[in-house]
């Protein structure tokens, strides 16, 4: 296992397309639900324990070697809004391009052929993590971090937030992030025996609703 591979996979400069997405925070800023550091921290905490936990579980399960196509179907059932399913697959397609260039493998090739329109991004992340020699816990941590790192970075642009404050916010959430990643990885360890229903399916209805609304905006800074 190469710990450096985790740094590459979780790096915001990894060309997987995440920079173009706000993780729902653009809509939250527009509605004044997020307007300063404290409200952004509350948003990120909520996202970490819902969408972040669910994505971390799927990524960790994919990193165990469990059938990625079954996991992709499970991701569909955990993503009720059509716009967010489309975004997840678009991000998965972009991550697939980056992962195949970085860590060429038969596993990534197989998933790309089976899902030409893109698998859900956490599934691709998990398969890429496995190919890179990382553990399911590593994959869960990368997915969990992405769930809050994206919104925090986007809010720097949306509100001209001090980037030092945004980074400090992420640092304050690291203990919770580790807890979420461990919960996700523990569930992933049981998938082979108990099936995909043991994976987290935490929901955030407001994120779902505003995500669908955001997709219909004619003018926006971020794709989601």
Protein architecture, described:
The chain has helices at residues 3-10, 25-30, 37-63, 68-77, 82-102, 106-114, 121-131, 136-159, 163-172, 174-189, 191-194, 205-215. It has 224 residues and is mainly alpha-helical. The longest helix has 27 residues, at 37-63. The termini are far apart.
* Strand proportion: under 5%
* Derived structural class: mainly alpha
Mean pLDDT: 95
Number of strands: 0
**Termini separation (Å)?**
34 Å
Biggest β-sheet description = none
Order of helices and strands: HHHHHHHHHHHH
Low-confidence runs of at least 5 consecutive residues: none
Q: What spatial form do the alpha-carbon principal axes imply?
A: globular
**Helicity, in percent?**
over 70%
Number of H- or I-type helical stretches: 12
Radius of gyration: 16 Å
């Amino acid at each position: 296992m190469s710990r450096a591979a985790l740094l590459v996979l979780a790096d915001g400069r990894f060309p997987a397309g995440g920079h173009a997405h706000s993780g729902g925070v653009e809509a939250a800023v527009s509605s004044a639900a997020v307007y300063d550091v404290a409200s952004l921290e509350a948003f990120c905490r909520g996202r970490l324990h819902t969408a972040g936990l669910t994505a971390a579980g799927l990524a960790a399960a994919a990193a165990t070697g469990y059938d990625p196509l079954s996991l992709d179907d499970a991701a569909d059932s955990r993503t009720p809004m059509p716009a967010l399913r489309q975004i997840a697959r678009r991000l998965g397609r972009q991550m697939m391009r980056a992962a195949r260039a970085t860590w060429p493998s038969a596993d990534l090739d197989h998933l790309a052929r089976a899902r030409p329109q893109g698998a859900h991004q956490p599934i691709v992340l998990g398969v890429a993590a496995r190919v890179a020699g990382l553990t399911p816990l590593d994959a869960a941590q990368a997915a969990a971090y992405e769930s809050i790192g994206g919104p925090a970075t986007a809010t720097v642009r949306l509100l001209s937030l001090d980037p030092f404050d945004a980074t400090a916010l992420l640092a304050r959430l690291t203990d919770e992030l580790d807890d979420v990643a461990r919960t996700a990885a523990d569930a992933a360890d049981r998938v082979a025996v108990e099936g995909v229903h043991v994976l987290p399916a935490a929901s955030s209805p407001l994120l779902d609703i505003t995500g669908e609304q955001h997709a219909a905006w004619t003018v926006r800074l971020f794709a989601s």
